[in-house]
């Protein structure tokens, strides 16, 4: 009886105090990882953070992109960005019935389209979304939009050259992630797997150092980075104008638009 009680207590403590690790495989077979514990999450690519990684303070919804090669931390928060006045594309998400189990979790299939173009399918899991750490992660990610990185002055031109399906995926937001479940698998219009979750492990003992921001690294913000790029382009304007002389009319027009957008960025 004592042995049974001890076993139950150990299992309970692991589930309560351990962290959660989500592993995802892309179309090339490379595995990325999301580690979650306490109030933090960490995103690592296939190289396990050697080229860079992302830390997220889940309580304040603040993101830190850590670049080891440059010894730099880029900080940003979606809360600093105004909500888009209108969606970039018309997105439709249509239920297509029960899907297969993915990494041991039941899923539902949803077909995604943008501006009438088929974008493939997404398999979402409500049961996976109910995992405490996963739920906390989703709460932080639901407000994240890649446009956070792009100054408002540049967004119109940026959107004009993006695939509508890419734009639609950034607009899924609360509708899919919060209400319908955690994304477990995505497929292109031909049914080829784009990426999929291969495992979700809970009660994992994680090294606290994984979630520590390097104190010796310098810090900057997305706005400061873009301002630095603007100044560099202005300093190199003469060289750029000479390069433009050899460009086609279409390439020259795009470059002129880009220079104009950088010049109009708020200082």
Descriptive account of the structure:
With 267 residues, the chain is an alpha+beta fold. It contains nine helices and twelve strands.
Q: Which characteristics define this entry?
A:
267 residues; alpha+beta; 3 domains; 12-stranded mixed beta sheet; 33% helix; globular; disordered N terminus
Q: Summed up, what is this model?
A:
By secondary structure, this protein is an alpha+beta fold. It has 9 helices and 12 strands. A 12-stranded mixed sheet has the order 7-8-9-10-11-1-2-3-4-5-6-12.
Mean pLDDT over the residues: 78
Can you count the helices?
A: 9
Relative helix content: 25-40%
Number of domains: 3
Class per helix and strand makeup = alpha+beta
Strand order of the largest sheet: 7-8-9-10-11-1-2-3-4-5-6-12
Number of strands: 12
Q: Which radius of gyration do the C-alpha atoms yield?
A: 22 Å
Strand fraction equals 25-35%
Shape: globular
> What is the element string, with H for helices and E for strands?
HEEEEEEEEEHHHHHEEEHHH
The N- to C-terminal Cα distance equals 70 Å
The major β-sheet equals: 12 strands, mixed
Which runs of at least 5 residues are low in confidence (pLDDT < 50)? 1-16, 80-86
List the helices and strands and how they pair.
Layout: H1 2-17, E1 19-26, E2 31-37, E3 40-44, E4 53-57, E5 62-67, E6 72-76, E7 91-102, E8 105-114, E9 117-125, H2 126-129, H3 132-141, H4 152-160, H5 164-170, H6 173-178, E10 182-187, E11 193-204, E12 218-221, H7 222-235, H8 237-244, H9 249-263
Parallel strand pairs: 6-12
Antiparallel strand pairs: 1-2, 1-11, 2-3, 3-4, 4-5, 5-6, 7-8, 8-9, 9-10, 10-11
């Amino acid at each position: 009886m004592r042995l049974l009680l001890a076993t139950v207590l150990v299992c309970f403590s692991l589930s309560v105090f351990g962290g959660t690790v989500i592993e995802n495989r892309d179309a090339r077979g490379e595995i990325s990882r999301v580690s979650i514990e306490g109030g933090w999450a960490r995103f690592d690519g296939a190289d396990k953070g050697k080229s860079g990684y992302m830390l997220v303070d889940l309580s304040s919804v603040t993101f830190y992109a850590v670049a080891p090669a440059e010894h730099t931390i880029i900080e940003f928060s979606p809360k600093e960005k105004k909500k888009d006045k209108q969606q970039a594309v018309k997105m439709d998400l249509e239920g297509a019935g029960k899907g297969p189990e993915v990494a041991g979790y039941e899923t539902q299939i949803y077909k995604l389209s943008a501006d009438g173009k088929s974008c493939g399918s997404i398999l979402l899991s409500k049961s996976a979304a109910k995992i405490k750490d996963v739920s906390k992660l989703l709460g932080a990610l639901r407000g994240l939009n890649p446009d956070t990185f792009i100054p408002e002055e540049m967004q119109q031109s940026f959107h004009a050259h993006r695939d509508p399906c890419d734009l639609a995926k950034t607009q899924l937001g609360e509708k899919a992630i919060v209400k319908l479940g955690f994304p477990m698998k995505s497929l292109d219009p031909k049914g080829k797997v784009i990426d999929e979750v291969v495992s979700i492990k809970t009660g994992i003992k994680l090294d606290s150092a994984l979630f520590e921001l390097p104190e010796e690294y310098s810090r900057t913000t997305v706005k400061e980075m873009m301002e630095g790029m603007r100044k560099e382009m202005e300093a190199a304007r003469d060289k750029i104008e000479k390069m433009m002389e050899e460009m086609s009319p279409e390439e020259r027009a795009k470059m002129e638009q880009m220079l104009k957008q950088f010049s109009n960025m708020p200082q």
